[in-house]
Amino acid sequence: MSELRNQPEFIELTEVVDREEHEFADMAARHFKARAKMALENDTLRASFRGASDFLMAKRRSVFPDEEMLQALRDRGEAARQRSLQDLPDLLELLEQNLIANGIQVHWAETAQQANQIIHDIMVANNARSVVKGKSMVSEEIELNHYLEARGIECLESDMGEYLVQLAKEAPSHIVMPVIHKNKQQIARLMHTRATTPDGEAVPYSEDVDDLIGNARAILRQKFRQADVGISGVNMAIAETGTLLLVENEGNGRMSTTVPPVHIAITGIEKVVRSLSDVPELLTLLPRSATGQIITTYVNMISGPRKAEEPDGPEQVHLVLLDNGRSKMFNHPDLKPTLQCIRCGACMNHCPVYARIGGHAYGSTYPGPIGQVVTPQLDSSGGLGVHADMVNACSLNGACGEACPVRIPLPDLIRKLRAEANAPVTVQHDGKPHVNGSGSHRSLAESLIWQGWSQLHRHSALYRLTTTAITKGRVLMPSKLSPWTNTRVMPKPAASSLHQLAKKAGVPSSAADIKTAQTPDATDNREGKS
Ligand code: SF4
Fold it and tell me: Which end of the chain has the smaller Cβ count within 10 Å, N or C?
């Protein structure tokens, strides 16, 4: 064992890393509002997210210099995803046929539990004790590492960000850049105190990015060779050719899918596309939107296990197709566009809420705007009953919808989920599709306020009467309206309404006034007066 580990500096740094781990665990155990508050009070975290969001937004802008071209690309990306979803059941059948024809074993999992069980069964059948994993958000969604580790199987993340998050005993805070919340010093401490070199030594402390990557590479290389199974995600599954497409930058995806004798890929059922001709459009949008790259370093296309004449590659390839609430999204007329997502993370990078509170505050696998939409729908037990506060953490500024490369109407979906959370309980019993927890946050007072609001805007006489009453009674308005006024000044109604000001200025403000003003006589009269 390294002498280094007994040095006071090492012990001190270990304490810092342990404290950060406890802070994460403490945050994770709390409710959304408490988590958000903790994140807002953490200056280091806020600086990391602000810097990363600004950097990623600028990178994305730089690869889409032509606005017209960007919008045309988004149109095509949206169309490609909608085509796939339109034919989803047929495409999944076609995909299965062609994967089997290519020698890939296909497994269907309705729930996270089933997916974990399937993967564990494959491992047991192969006497496998260790896994090396490429990046896969679906494996995070089903908490695969916990499941396998509880059964004595060693799981090692091989994506650099995921590896660091695993060392920190945290969860990813971004779907593309899992360790975006940590700065260079935090990562250096983590590698130094928690990683072990192939010789069993502590990794030397270094804040140099090349050193950090080089040290991780040396550790992971050996693990790739030793692992019994490699697990990966899938970016697109191509139905007509039975091909699994995987994009990545580090080469760890290629290593995880080719070096161990068994490769298990896992993906949500929505990732299927019909043909290879759908790929270029989506591949043009994905890396540009995610990291501001024209293309990722590696684009892997997996079309079967090693053939007799081939020198390397896995002997078995499995694909686990996970539903876990996706069929329900597919059948919901309003929320179906959720499934268009290509998991680029651009909506997070552009979200002012995400940029301030970061990914862990959401407490879900998928944070940010897409997380707000997808999380209540994936959670079959709590749904909106648990996640309504998260859905409300949105200013509806629309930036996510404008950044989304496949035009998912995120602000609309968030609004719809808010309405579902407040829906009358009868909605759940009238045979229409609904999200779990629909109506769980229904408040009589809020419903009455919105009904009143709606009536007010439908009846002009009532509207005028109310605005007149408000302007007259402005002095009676409360100066505090928590929690809104905790950070804002309570606005005072103006002394005169817009209609009153318009009338005073002689501007026609009602339909009848405008009509009168537009008649030749009226015009003549006005001209005569002037
Ligand atoms: S919702 Fe759109 S922007 Fe957000 S991750 Fe999905 S594809 Fe990307």
Answer: C
